Amino acid sequence: MNKKIFLTLSLLSAAAVGGSLFVAMEPLSTQASTDVRPALQAGGEAPQGQQSMSLLPGGTSLAGSYLSSRFAQHHHDWKNSSLFIGRVLEEAPGDLTLTKRAMVLSMGAGEFDRAVSLADQVLKADEHSPLASLFATINAFKDKDYQKAAHLVDSIPDDGLSKFVMPLLHSWSQAGIGKHDTEALKGNTVHIYHAILIADFLGEHSHIESLLSKAANADEVSIADLERIADIYGHIGRKDTALKLYKEIVAAGQDSDALQTKIRALETDEPAKLFETVSSPEAGVAEALYDTARILYGDYSDESARIFAYMALTLNPSLTESQLLLAYIAARNERYEEAITHYRAVPAGDDHFLEARRQLAELLEKTEQADEAVRTLRALADAYHDADSLIQIGDIYRRTKDFKQAVVAYDEAAASFKKGVVPPEYWHLYYVRGMAYEQLGQWPKAEADLKEALVLEPDHPFVLNYLGYAWADQGVNLKESLEMIRKAAALQPSDGYIADSLGWVLYRMSRYDQAVPHLEKAVELMPYDPVINDHLGDAYWRVGRKLEARFQWQRAKNHIGEDDPIDAETIDAKLARGLDESPVVKEARTQAAITAD
């Protein structure tokens, strides 16, 4: 992100009451008791020596409702936060601080009309309130009153908000009254992009290509900006340039269904809607607000981002990107049901429908609704012949230990491709199916799939590690296993499982002194994993550190879980007799040696 944009938008999270943009952003603190004092006094003072606790109807205290609002907001529950602060405001309707807070919380809860009504009250008492003025401006755009919008934009005080958002609102308001004024939209890729949108909206295309070149070569262009630049190149007939940029995005690892659809359309000269033209100034402003929200989200300023995202959605209810962004914000803050609601709001036929439904299924699984997640994905697979949904179904079954059903889903996904040939970009299908086969004890099939994944993705650390560890655990292909796991460790030096694998393959090769430091590193990275602790205990015993070995075995036993591939009986045998005298371990080592030979 451009540093100038970052510095500007960071001001949006300011929290000083009265002079701030977002008064609702201040953290929970002891200041809450002083903030609410005017409201408490409005209900009458308590007798001397008693705490002032005016009661709302139903017995809830004003202070309790205020603090409940703060608590709810702290936990990203904006609906209830807005509800509680509204109860307090009913008892103190003239309190400016409470009105500002209620205004912001209403917008953040998606209650646009209430937020605008409160903004009007704020402006009567404080005509220089930047955020109240912004809300009023957005409402003017919603009402298609572009003259009023232009007047309000130019009257908003010059502060951190104006440096980024106001030039966008100014230029779009001017476009609304038929004027082409984008002089201020030069400083960053978002501004340049909107200068292009405005020129296209007004039918003045002469400068679009030079603006595109300037945007594409700006500092720190994001992937999202680059895709939109490519869209416009395609829109104006520069298909070769658009295709080149799309493929650069894919090469950068940012592939998507929508992007592949665009690429196929350009390569086959099929008609495709690469660029969504802006149909009205308010739709342009919605894009500008979404862009602001997107940047704030990237900076983890989620509270500010959700306010801009809701304003964008108010101006353009069909702006799916804003709906998805609100889902991302909710999910990142563990508001899963809220996120699910936003994903469900994406309609069938929308370019982002498949993505939204897959994300919905992921959250359904996360909230222990795995059966509903599978039904959601099955509907996609049946309606769209969607291999990704089938793979996701397999992943759900695999994570719930139903490996047979996982393989069925993975096989169906493989069969869905043309002539049953899995494309290289779906290498991970071999990987996940190989893991499922391995868990079913069907090692020849697992090994074949893992090898195929490695052919398609030879430098993937987790594939290298999985196959290498499986070989090491069986005592076969130890030299090849060591090379693979060393490569994986170089690619992922901070991964505890890979460090354990490296130590374990050295152990299986009887290179105990070399194994110990890698296994110690693995335990440092994953101190509660019973298998890793058990491996380190074995290595300690082999190098004569028997007291430490028993300590690690005891740790391993203490942390054995239901699904761990290790049992307490084996650990008890080691604790009682060590490795050399343990019949269980001696037999295992004999069989491993025979296999290795």
Provide keyphrases for this structure.
69% helix; globular; mainly alpha; 33 helices; disordered N terminus; Serine Threonine Protein Phosphatase 5, Tetratricopeptide repeat
Description:
The chain is globular, with a radius of gyration of 30 Å. It has helices at residues 3-10, 31-35, 37-42, 62-74, 78-91, 96-108, 112-125, 130-142, 146-155, 160-176, 189-201, 208-216, 223-235, 239-251, 257-268, 281-298, 302-315, 320-332, 336-344, 353-366, 370-384, 387-399, 403-415, 427-439, 443-456, 461-474, 478-491, 496-508, 512-525, 530-542, 546-558, 568-577, 583-596. Among the domains are: 1-28 and 57-179 and 280-351, Serine Threonine Protein Phosphatase 5, Tetratricopeptide repeat (Alpha Horseshoe), CATH 1.25.40; 205-268. 44% of the residues are buried. Residues 1-59 have low confidence and may be disordered. The protein has 33 helices and no strands. It is an all-alpha fold and 597 residues long.
